[in-house]
Specification:
The chain is of the alpha+beta class and 449 residues long. The protein has helices at 4-23, 245-248, 313-324, 342-352, 374-383, 404-413, 427-448; strands at residues 49-50, 52-53, 66-67, 73-82, 115-116, 145-154, 162-165, 169-170, 177-178, 182-187, 194-195, 199-200, 217-218, 226-227, 230-236, 257-264, 268-272, 278-280, 292-293, 295-298, 354-355, 358-359. The chain has seven helices and 22 strands. Strands 1, 4, 6, 7, 10, 11, 14, 15, 16 and 20 form a ten-stranded antiparallel sheet that branches.
Length: 449
């Protein structure tokens, strides 16, 4: 369900639009609070993500533009493709629009390069008797769907975490938009799926191949243009699911989403948004009936840089090396500020790295057990002064030397307990630690001499 804060913001936005229309004598066409189908970077709710960028401008899919490097990954597989196969070309096995592999890999902005989820037919106007459905067709009350997988899990990071590309397109300069919408569900285990809370303010049916105002639609895939040289994806932020029952109950891990399910919405009003309001889009459609999926791009993925299946000290060291090298590889820009620096190391340690007790810790947890204690101090003491050292050796920052800077970080976080909400001890305790640590390190230096 939409949060109270967002509801208030939407109410204020729509009130302002209404007031503007009154003051201008009705010259301003009514529009919703959400983003337009194309370039709308300042929208406060769901600014679309450009599929292509380059000298021709964001969202322009013509050469020499290229696929947006902000996407770190793309759907690489699928575990279910269950189209609603009555009333469209999907009744023929292997039909052109029934190829789920088209949803894999990067966006292309080719409106023909998509897989259809199928349309549910209109009971008042059923297809000709000669159209015999596949025995496994879904049925009139069960829309088509596809579940996608990824090489690396999606994580809840800064801003949008994924974007979905359909093949909708804008009809005219006024913003009228042909859309086939879909719900988006996510899961970390392939069994328990949470659905993003959508909002549809389209007032009534638009008819077969009709148009909608995309500024009336939120958190439903397919509301942005991706075809005829334009390429924009609909953003989804995993953080909006933080209060979902599956997350609270430990059945959905927002730090490791491995499945994204797209479910078609037949736009006759029989299917509802999160508030129970009817959803309308172009219905019924034939040929590539229903939602046509082209790609799902990942904006925040789990930073398993060495691809071993774990986010650990080795990955921290790889990020540290990237920082020292002033890398421009956006895989290492974990906080999405456009720069690879120490802030990304902080994000890595606090929100991504795996410990023996969960996800995330603090600088100084060199053995990644979720605690910063005497064991970590002993590790640092052993390697103090070493050059070319990594996290597991006691290097708490991104340089290659274990020195007083690392000791200061250890002092700051000594006593941290990830299982207790990241608590740290009182300053007096830290002072005693500093004295003891300094003495121990001094003894080591005397022994070296």
């Amino acid at each position: 369900m939409m949060t109270g804060k967002k509801r208030v913001a939407v109410h204020r936005w729509t009130t302002l639009l209404a007031l503007t229309a009154v003051l201008s004598g009705g010259a301003v066409a009514w529009a919703g609070p959400y983003s337009q189908a194309g370039n709308d970077p300042t929208n406060p709710f769901d600014p679309p993500i450009a599929g292509f960028v380059g000298p021709n401008g964001d969202g322009d899919a013509t050469a020499p533009n290229y696929v947006n490097p902000e996407f770190l990954g793309w759907a690489s597989g699928f575990v279910d493709y269950l189209p609603a196969s009555l009333g469209n070309d999907l009744i023929n096995p292997g039909a052109d629009w029934a190829q789920p592999s088209r949803a894999l890999g990067p966006v292309t902005a080719d409106q023909m390069d998509a897989v259809s989820l199928g349309e549910l037919y209109d009971p008042a106007a059923p297809p000709p008797p000669s159209w015999v459905p596949d025995p496994d067709w879904i049925g009139i009350d069960d829309p088509g769907e596809i579940t996608l997988t990824f090489d690396l899990p999606i994580r809840n990071g800064v801003g949008a975490d994924l974007a979905v590309f359909e093949n909708g397109f804008t009809n005219d300069v006024g913003g009228s938009f042909f859309a086939e919408l879909a719900y988006v569900d996510v899961s970390s285990d392939g069994v328990n799926f949470a659905r993003f809370a959508g909002d549809s303010q389209t007032p009534g049916p638009v008819g077969s191949f009709g148009s909608i105002d995309p500024t009336n639609v939120y958190n439903l895939a397919g509301k942005h243009s991706n075809g005829y040289t334009q390429s924009w994806g609909t953003p989804f932020d995993l953080g909006e699911l933080a209060d979902h029952a599956l997350v609270v109950g430990g059945l959905l891990d927002l730090t490791a989403v491995q499945f994204v399910r797209i479910v078609d919405i037949p736009g006759n009003g029989a299917f509802a948004d999160d508030d129970g309001d009817p959803i309308y889009d172009a219905w019924a459609t034939l040929g590539s009936g229903g939602f046509d999926l082209q790609a799902v791009g990942v904006l925040n993925e789990v930073p398993d840089f060495d691809g071993d299946g774990f986010v650990n000290a080795d990955d921290i060291d790889l990020l540290s090396a990237a920082i020292r090298a002033a890398s421009t590889d956006l895989r290492y820009d974990l906080n999405n500020d456009g720069v690879v620096d120490g802030d990304d190391l902080t994000t890595m340690v606090e929100t991504c790295v795996e410990t023996t007790v969960g996800i995330g810790t603090a600088p100084g947890d060199f053995n990644l057990d979720g605690l910063i204690d005497g064991t970590d101090l002993a590790i640092m003491k052993t390697h103090f002064g070493d050059l070319g050292a990594g996290w597991a050796d006691g290097n708490a920052n991104f340089d290659e030397l274990i020195d007083g800077t690392d000791l200061a970080l250890l002092k700051t976080y000594f006593g941290f307990d990830a299982t207790a909400g990241g608590t740290v001890p009182e300053p007096a305790t830290l002072g005693l630690l500093a004295v003891g640590a300094a003495a121990a390190i001094a003894r080591r230096h005397r022994r070296r001499k």
